Amino acid sequence: MAKEFDVVSSKRPLLFMAAAGGQEAISSTSQYTSTSAYDVFLSFRGEDIRKTFLDHLYTALVGAGFHTFRDADEIERAENIKLELEQAIQQSRSSIVVFSENYASSKWCLDELVMIVERRRRTSQFVLLPVFYHVDPSHVRNQTGSLAAAFAGHEEWFAKERIQGWREALREVAELAGMVLLNQADGFNEELIGVSKAFDASMSNLLSSSLVYLAWLIKIPSLLSFIIIMNCRHEAKFIKKIVKVIKNRVNRRALDLPSTLVGIDSRVKDINLWLHNGSRDVGIMLLCGMGGIGKTTIARYVFNLNFSRFDSSSFLANIRESFEKPDGLIRLQRQLLADISKGNMTEIFSVDDGINKIKFAMSRQRVLLVFDDVDQEEQLQAILGMQDWFYPSSKVIITTRNVRLLTARASKYEILNVDKLDSNESLELFSMHAFGHNRPNEPFVQLSENVVRQCEGLPLALEILGSSLYGRSIDLWQSAIEKLQAIPNNQILRKLRISYDSLEDRHDRDLFLEVACFFVGEDKDHVVTILDQCEFHTRIGVQNLTDRCLLRVDRYNKIMMHEMLRALGREITCEQSRNPGSRSRLWRHKDSFSVLKNNSATVEIEGLALDMHMLLKRDERVSCINSARPGRIGFFSWPVANSTFNISDEMDLKADAFSTMSRLRLLHINYLHLTGGFKGFPKEIKWLRWHGCPLEYIPSDFPLESPVAIDMSYSNLKTGWCGTKRLGCLKILDLGNCHGLTSTPDFSRLRALERLILKKCTSLIEVHASIENLENSLLYLNLEDCISLSKLPGEIGKLKVLNTLIISGCSNLEEFPMEIERLQALQVFHADRIVMGTIHPTTSVYSSWHAFVRMRTWVSKPRKTLEVSWASLPCSLVDLSLAGCNLFDDAIPSELGNLLSLQNLNLGRNPISCVPTCIKGLTRLQRLNLENCPRLQSVTGIRVLEEINLYNCKSLQKYESETPSCNIVECNNLVEMTLCFKLIPIDDTRVAFVKNQLEPMNNIEMKTYHIATKTTRRGPIQVLFEGCGLLSTFYPGNQVPAWFRTRIRGSSLSFTVPSSPHTSTGGISMCLCFVYSMKEQDHEQFYAIVSNETKDLKLIYGPSCYGCPKADEDMSWVSYWMLGNDKLEADDEITISLLSTKAVEVREIGFHLVHLDLGAEADTVEVKQPAYPSWDSYPEECEGRSGSTRLFGQGTLRFSVKDLLKDVGVTWDPCQAEFRLFTLPASHVHSRSAGDQNL
């Protein structure tokens, strides 16, 4: 199965190709290939190998055609030599570092190595090949063996920082794939070992046999000669292998990339993690997205970053185009075979012959393959083969617009969806092409934002349009933008049309045009209902278009399409004829009005859209509309106006202008005045949208036999239609916001009706009793905010298939049908903002009902009460909303506990103080909304749900749940959250050292900022407990407490853990203290980092809340870390530092070691804290190639090391640290803005 994950850049989405003035440029990542002075830089210890191995290697490299740098003046080095070396390294394309016995004893060699490593970090294409010449790589990695002695001498003469840099460079290089002489002997070492053992055995018998001794004296010269000869032969073979590796890696030029790639790291991070996940499985990843979104750019960047890490690699570009050319498939096979065979390719005579040879080549080495722009499965059949062809750990990346490309071919693969750019990054990319820098020039800001808005984050469009406007005047800009609104850029459309043309049949192409012209932003299920009646197979068609990245269905089930793809579809319809009246679809309001006004319509028209508000200019619109109302994004929705409006007579149209459109199926005529009769009106209309219809009723001659969906929202309708109408096909009827509507139509002839929307019909006083005729069809009934409705018909209980009932805001309802219990199919019931009364049933049918509950709304105006039985709610309910009903704790009935199918419950905006006991037994409950409950103090006893919304619960103090997603923003009194944190006053803590030191400050108040709740409050000093055995406290203070044994000025310190008799039995903990100040009062972030250099382990901790010092004061942060022997033990080398932004200034650091044992200090034995997990209790850790990093804190409970450090401005090379995401089994703190409060 495919594993799919979306890449939505939360920090900085990908910014694509940008070159000043829109000109072509070569990427900085590949530019060095043409400006390098040397092909190879040799780093070595001259005393060891200059006149032997190194001399032979240099000769071989030069003989192979490589311009090689070799320092010949190592003994007499001076500063000018160092500068020359640094320059030579910067001008080299690769470096061979030869580690010999005494390499690390030379400070020059170590400094040189640091420069080489820094060069590699800056340029991903720089090739670094370590060669271990009779040296164990593990000795280099860990600085043991001869390196340990060398560093012991260095530590007496050089600064710790310099030594630390040497160690890090050695460790990093030793982790790379290199060549080891001892491992290349091809049996020679074993033979030497056999000779050596024989020699040792003979020498042991020396005293007993002088003849043997004499024999060995005779053999020694020949033995030494044999060793020298074999060693020379072996070194020659070894050097040939080195030259071959350099040929394969240095001769490969990096792929060209644009000169500016801003923010690309956020996109390639997950790909790099996948490339280096350590799995031996063959990995395949689909890089999917619409045309022009940047798939190829990402693939090229990833390839350049990683090809040198594989045995062989190949990037096959433009496969779709190549496949269409004569012999295109064989050409692709030849290129692939040449790449992975490193030039040693045999001829390919046929496709089958190519398959066999490619299969053989790929099965013998670990390969990285990138197949760019693959459109159909057969394009891979003769290239990719099956996954079992590949050598273990090989990786394949495929860029495609077809999500289902590998459904039948690969059993397991990843899907990465490339998302569009957000507005900020789009503006930056556009500006790079339009102005040559990352922000628009002052006079062009508004115009630039208009263009960027139309591009909707598509890099291709931003680049093309930006380049076309480069150097133009404001007048030309304005003219170009006006043209763009009318005629999309042809260069962009040409590239996007590839996806449209690749659709398999006319059905899907026509469906794409229908959606582009009429249905973007509409509910998917409604579109299916309508277009299925237009002879479309809509559901499978929508899926096909989604798989081709031509549209998507969002989380609200709305069909969405990129603005440029929408423009493509609409432009295709315009190509049908220069005469709008002869086109199949009229989507441009101006064209539609012209055709109707001039009676130029033809039988070809199948769909027409005309919105008079969109047609009128803004100033005219204001004069025509009394008051504007915001519309919603939905099926029957539009930017709407009040039903009272005035449009000039010149804008009126005659109804018989539609008479020639006999094939018209889709009609959208918002706010249009039609005069005359409707006798000749088209009779095949399936979808009618007529917002703002001026008629008080639908006339009898209006054809209503065929419509599947009618939307007459915001109209003047007072009744439905005149006379008896049989609407046998009608499934959707929307009369929402018809403020003059007093009663519903007669439903007796609407037996197919599935959705009835009467939202905000403020004058509606009656729902016709004939609604019982919809017992087998009506699924959805929306009566929200029908404030004049006093009762519902009892016949509503006969609706056997009713799924959704919404009566929120029906504040004048006096009676509620007791028959609601019969609605066994009801799953969604919303009754927000209403008043409910308490009665007892009088009918014998419901003699067993329970007591009722009285509820009042939070409004000043008295409302009538609604009589409803809690016990009568059907057990089939899945979604129940009772928000804003003024429910107190004792007003919530126990009967809610009987709703065993309930998954979503909304009790927000109610004055409850705790979670009702009755809902704790709802075993299927997944989402609980308690937002804006001002009296809520605790959330306890709740099992694990999918989501809990506690937004703005000002009184909330305690939260006990392991729910993975919880919104606690604006909960400014929260002091305890399960598995995350707990704040305890000093007086209540049992931590002796904290209580003893801070008790005198008990009366001091300070300001703290809580990251998870995004709130600041003032209060007394508190102790913060967090998971992993962490304890913190903040207090005003300008120095480390005296009881800390070590204190130092600065932002970091290093030490070696001393030995202790307590260490082996109890483990070690430590106390840290940072004294800091903040230059700004903004909310900052900082992290304490404890690096165990001996164990190659980093612990990173950011507190979930911290003290905010005043402008003229310092703040002290004391933290207590409970560790074990596996994290900290005697003789470990430890470095402690604080990572922060520039606004946080660290003045002093202190540390104090504590041994956990019965014989240890009493104050540490008394440490007690909540039962939070330890460092070791988590299922995953962030493992890198050279160690591990464990993270905790700040409420961010799913993140990578790169994201964590990026928050404080630290760069991270994804190729040097492939860390897996670290998921803590604790509550995900879900932060949202105040405007996003819905659960």
Automatic annotation (TrEMBL):
**Classification via InterPro entries:** Apaf_helical (IPR042197), C-JID (IPR045344), Disease_R_plants (IPR044974), LRR_dom_sf (IPR032675), NB-ARC (IPR002182), P-loop_NTPase (IPR027417), TIR_dom (IPR000157), Toll_tir_struct_dom_sf (IPR035897)
Q: Which EC number(s) does UniProt give? A: 3.2.2.6
Q: Which domain of life is it from?
A: Eukaryota
- Keyword annotations from UniProtKB, A to Z: Hydrolase, Leucine-rich repeat, NAD, Plant defense, Repeat
What GO annotations for molecular function exist for this entry?
A: ADP binding; NAD+ nucleosidase activity, cyclic ADP-ribose generating
Gene Ontology biological process terms in this record: defense response; signal transduction
Catalysed reaction(s)? Answer: NAD(+) + H2O = ADP-D-ribose + nicotinamide + H(+)
Q: Identify the residues that the record assigns to the TIR domain, covering every copy.
A: 36-199
Stated name of the protein: ADP-ribosyl cyclase/cyclic ADP-ribose hydrolase
